[in-house]
Amino acid sequence: MSDPSEHGDPAGATSARSLPGAGLVKGLAVTLKTMTSRSTTQQYPDVAPDLPPRSRGVIALSEENCTVCMLCARECPDWCIYIDSHKEEVAVPGAARPRQRNVLDKFDIDFSLCMYCGICIEVCPFDALYWSPEFEYAEYDIKDLLHDKDHLGQWMATVPPPPAHDPNGEPAKEETAAARKASAPRPAPSSVRSEPGADPGPAS
Ligand code: SF4
Ligand code: SF4
Description:
Blueprint: H1 11-18, H2 22-36, E1 58-61, H3 71-75, E2 81-90, E3 99-110, H4 119-123, E4 129-132, E5 146-147, H5 149-154, H6 173-183
The structure holds iron/sulfur cluster (2 copies).
One iron/sulfur cluster is lined by residues 76-78, 80-81, 109, 114-120.
C-alpha cells in the first residue's frame, strides 16, 4: 500500500477531509467570523461617500483664466481635449496699435477617453483647470461624456477650497519678498544723488 504523502497529499489533509461534517463546521466558522466582524458597507447612493478632498472626480474649467495657450491639449496623453479660439482686437488707450487677445470658442474634454492622469491640470500655467471630487456623471450614451466649456464651467462650483497652509511650513517666496520690501528703509530725499552738471540750488 502506498503512502498518501508520496503523492503530494499530506496525511493530515486527507484525514481532515474524511471527517464527517468537517466542511460544515468550517463553513459555519467563516459565517460566525463574518457576522461578528465590523461591517464596512457604505450605504451609497442613500448616503454620499466621504471622499478625500483631493479626489479626482471630474475636471472643472475656469474659463476666464484660460488664455488658449494650448499647453493642456498638447500634453494630454489621450488627446481628449479639444480647443478652438479666434483672435480679437482690443483698443488700448494711449497705445499706437490695438492689442490682440485670444477668445475661447470651444473647450471640450471627452471623459470617455480621459484617464484622469491630471497632467492637463498640472501643466496649466494660468490656474484654469481644477479637480472636482464629483463623480456622478455617468451617462447612458457615451457621446454625452463629452463635456463642453459650459458644462466644465459648472463643475467649478464643486471644486473644494485649497487646503490651509501648513503652520510649520516655509512661507511662500512671494510673501517673504513682499515682507522684506515693506520693511526695507526708504531712502531719504536728501540722499538722492544729483546728476553731474545739475544745478545744486541756492547756497545757504
Ligand atoms: S486628466 Fe489626463 S487624460 Fe484626462 S484630459 Fe487631462 S491630461 Fe488628458
Ligand atoms: S493650459 Fe490652461 S490656459 Fe492653456 S489652454 Fe489649457 S486651460 Fe487654457
